[in-house]
């Protein structure tokens, strides 16, 4: 990169799909052509959550924003979608938008709105560029996209017990005396929680981690329970058994704030430490000690991640775990309770956000975890408009997704900041702006601050915000829905048009002046101290969760369980194009395999293996390691397929199977077989030594 002198620092909210929603200090300076660009990213020292540091990935955001292959002009495909090297020609915005609008119009006239689908996710968490842009599709009446690929099982499970998703305030975690990190690799995926945990530890707190493998968070914790994947409901029931048996329940809280304690007590009765140990792979003594720690330490804070939800029984796993603080009464103690997501506290007026008011109950919908099926020729789609996501890599059964995207009779339009593997399969790539180049409002799922970003940098080339593209298409398609054409200020006024106390005193002017504003919550926020926002007003402990093994009948042809959790240096696939970050992750994706399994399956450290599941196969370097457990393979990171030895995404082996609750994704639940690859490629790690 050409050396350039910094000219000024600005504070902006990180737009990425991460609970921390950091307030970033972004250093700007003139680029080689003289226009101002992003040079450096750190954290705002004055922000109580960000505390002056950005994560190991987003410090590299400038390399993404200034990437030589970033699409800066509208591109139209020349050549076929199946060509190994995709080719595009530059066109004007008018050429691109006129042609796309004409083709959408033709589909609407001849085949109806069901022939068009939006496919989007949280590449930006901005309410304008991420959510309000759905208004175009609602105005056209195209199918709803059932979101999410990420949080549905957790959301549904939380709703059953607690209604609205509230979280312990991360700033209160320092008060906890036991911290349980359960199915979350928080040191990588929620790194701004760490200072609060360290403060708690200094004050005497113990930190325990429940995870199938020794990740960074397990190494940081004082104790690691290496649970068998998919068995968390059994462990939670085992803990409940001990809580009831030893009288460690808070009976006053159970009486005042919950419903169904007796039924839960009966359900937990059979879950003795021995039975729990048998199912979870832990020892009975570990189960007893874990239950004693939770039963006798106030406040206990449990941070759950989505890891345990990404299984066929995932909703129930999460529900069982999140009911524990209701039994111990931790919700009454500052720093006690449980966090999944804080998003429910942001009581914005969302009635017309994304033109939600146009969606009638029973409107046709497509579950986003089943995109592969939706793209199948018989399903009737003629056009797919993709924004804020990279489905050719991140969606389950990505082999099927890619085959669908390659259909010659499907119009694929991709709004992107990077030439992702999805963009490479597009008919049109429309260049998108980044968070410094467009205005937006951000909530958070890990803390209680709203963030506002103004337009800060000029858009490079002809990059445009998603909202601009949607409005231009809407005009060409004759859309008259007024919210479609709102400016940022009009959207902001709508979102803040509410009497809810959480937003009292928060005005557009204040948001613009302060940039980051804490919701108007009490200083000590104890959302479930006296009940919950369920229909009965109480924490619902029934129906009592039960454990079921989705792989009980898995045949011997699928001997191993594959989990595919996030990597430290990536954010989903967003940073997978930066060589320094792929190097930090070992230059290519690899699979952790326990020494016992390596011996059984005839594989050695550094060898390539083929992982086969019922939907596809991939080739990966095997790393033999006792960080994992016998029977469980771990593949960290949703790498670009282009970085893998076989050019394929890990999701070529994951399936479109949905979770028990919420219709969520099951990325950590695959049964696979592994065989050694005979023809060898050099191991990049040993080659570099
Ligand atoms: N560095 C980094 N940060 C990220 C992301 C990223 O890709 N990289 N992605 C962002 C996004 S979109 C999300 S949703 C979050 C996700 O962040 P997390 O919630 O931390 O990620 P998960 O995929 O849920 O996996 C978390 C842990 O769950 C474990 N796990 C898998 N199955 C089970 C199980 O059955 N039981 C238990 N107890 N544990 C299990 C995995 O081994 C893993 O260590 O992180 C966000 N932040
Ligand atoms: N095997 C496996 N697969 C997984 C997961 C896993 O743990 N294992 N995790 C799953 C989870 S939790 C999630 S959330 C999904 C995430 O999957 P995605 O939602 O696809 O997330 P990213 O891969 O980060 O891709 C986001 C894309 O949005 C683009 N983008 C960002 N901002 C903008 C913008 O303003 N405008 C436009 N037009 N584009 C923008 C970025 O350039 C990037 O290419 O992946 C899922 N897939
Ligand atoms: S990705 Fe998360 S931790 Fe990293 S800067 Fe953005 S919000 Fe902060
Ligand atoms: Mo996610």
TrEMBL record:
Cofactors named for this entry: Mo-bis(molybdopterin guanine dinucleotide)
Domain 4Fe-4S Mo/W bis-MGD-type: 7-69
Any GO molecular function: oxidoreductase activity
Pfam families named among the record's database cross-references: Molybdop_Fe4S4, Molybdopterin, Molydop_binding
Keywords: Iron, Iron-sulfur, Metal-binding, Molybdenum, Oxidoreductase
Xref: InterPro entries: Asp_de-COase-like_dom_sf (IPR009010), MoPterin_dinucl-bd_dom (IPR006657), Mopterin_OxRdtase (IPR006656), Mopterin_OxRdtase_4Fe-4S_dom (IPR006963), Mopterin_OxRdtase_prok_CS (IPR006655), Prok_Mopterin_Oxidored (IPR050612), YoaE_C (IPR037920)
Keyword DNA damage in annotation: no
Gene3D superfamilies: 2.40.40.20, 3.40.50.740, ADC-like domains, Dimethylsulfoxide Reductase, domain 2, Formate dehydrogenase/DMSO reductase
Protein family (similarity comment): Belongs to the prokaryotic molybdopterin-containing oxidoreductase family.
Protein name in UniProt: Molybdopterin oxidoreductase
């Amino acid at each position: 990169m050409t050396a350039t002198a910094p000219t000024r620092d600005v504070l902006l909210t990180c737009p990425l799909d991460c609970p921390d929603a950091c307030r970033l200090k972004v250093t700007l300076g003139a680029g080689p052509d003289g226009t101002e660009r992003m040079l450096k990213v750190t954290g705002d020292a004055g922000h109580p959550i960000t505390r002056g540091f950005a994560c190991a990935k987003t410090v590299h955001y400038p390399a993404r924003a200034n990437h030589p292959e970033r699409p800066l002009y509208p591109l139209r495909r020349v050549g076929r979608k199946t060509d190994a090297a995709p080719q595009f020609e530059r066109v004007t915005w008018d050429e691109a938008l006129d042609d796309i609008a004409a083709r959408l119009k033709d589909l609407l006239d001849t085949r109806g709105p069901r022939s068009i689908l939006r496919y989007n996710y949280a590449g930006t968490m901005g309410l304008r560029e991420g959510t309000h842009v759905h208004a175009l599709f609602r105005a056209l009446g195209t199918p709803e996209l059932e979101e999410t690929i990420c949080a549905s099982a957790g959301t549904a499970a939380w709703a059953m017990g607690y209604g609205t998703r509230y979280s312990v305030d991360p700033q209160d975690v320092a008060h906890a005396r036991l911290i349980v990190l359960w199915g979350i690799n928080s040191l990588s995926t929620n790194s701004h929680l760490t200072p609060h945990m360290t403060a708690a530890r200094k004050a005497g707190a113990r930190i325990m981690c429940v995870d199938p493998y020794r990740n960074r968070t397990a190494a940081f914790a004082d104790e690691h329970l290496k649970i068998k994947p998919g068995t968390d409901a059994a462990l939670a029931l085992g803990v409940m058994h001990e809580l009831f048996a030893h009288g460690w329940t808070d009976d006053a809280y159970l009486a005042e704030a919950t419903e169904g304690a007796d039924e839960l007590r009966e359900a937990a009765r059979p879950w003795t430490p021995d039975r729990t140990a048998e199912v979870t792979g832990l020892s009975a003594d570990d189960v007893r000690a874990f239950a004693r720690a939770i039963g006798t330490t106030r406040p206990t804070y449990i941070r759950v991640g989505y890891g345990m939800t990404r299984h066929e029984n995932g909703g129930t796993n999460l529900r069982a775990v999140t009911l524990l603080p209701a039994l111990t009464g931790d919700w009454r103690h500052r720093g006690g309770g449980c966090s999944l997501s804080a998003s429910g506290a942001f009581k914005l007026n969302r009635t017309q956000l994304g033109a939600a008011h146009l969606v009638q109950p029973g409107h046709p919908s497509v579950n986003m975890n089943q995109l592969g099926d939706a793209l199948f020729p018989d399903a009737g789609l003629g056009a797919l408009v993709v924004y804020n996501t990279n489905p050719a890599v991140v969606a389950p059964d990505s082999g099927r997704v890619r085959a669908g995207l390659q259909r010659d009779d499907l119009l694929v339009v991709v709004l992107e900041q990077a030439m992702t593997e999805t963009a490479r399969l597009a008919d049109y790539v429309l260049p998108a702006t980044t968070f410094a180049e467009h205005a937006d409002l951000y909530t958070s799922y890990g803390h209680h601050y709203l963030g506002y970003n103004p337009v800060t940098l000029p858009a490079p080339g002809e990059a445009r915000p998603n909202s601009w593209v949607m409005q231009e298409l809407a005009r060409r398609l004759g859309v008259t829905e007024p919210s479609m054409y709102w400016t940022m200020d009009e959207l902001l006024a709508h979102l803040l048009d509410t009497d809810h106390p959480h937003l009292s005193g928060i005005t557009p002017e204040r948001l613009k002046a302060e940039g980051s504003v804490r919701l108007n919550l009490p200083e000590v926020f104890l959302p479930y101290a006296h009940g919950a926002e369920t229909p009965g007003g109480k924490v619902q402990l029934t129906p009592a969760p039960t454990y079921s093994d989705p792989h009980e009948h898995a045949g011997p042809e699928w001997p191993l369980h594959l989990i595919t959790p996030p990597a430290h240096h990536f954010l989903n696939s967003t940073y997978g194009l930066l060589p320094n970050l792929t190097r930090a992750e070992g230059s290519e994706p690899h699979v952790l395999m326990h020494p016992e399994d390596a011996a059984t399956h005839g594989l050695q450290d550094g060898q390539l293996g083929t992982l086969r599941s019922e939907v596809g196969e991939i080739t990966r370097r095997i790393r033999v390691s006792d960080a994992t457990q016998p029977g469980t393979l771990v593949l960290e990171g949703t790498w670009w397929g282009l970085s893998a030895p076989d050019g394929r995404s890990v999701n070529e082996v994951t399936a479109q199977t949905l979770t028990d609750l919420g219709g969520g994704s099951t990325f950590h639940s695959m049964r696979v077989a592994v065989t050694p690859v005979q023809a060898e490629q050099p191991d990049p790690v040993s080659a570099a030594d």
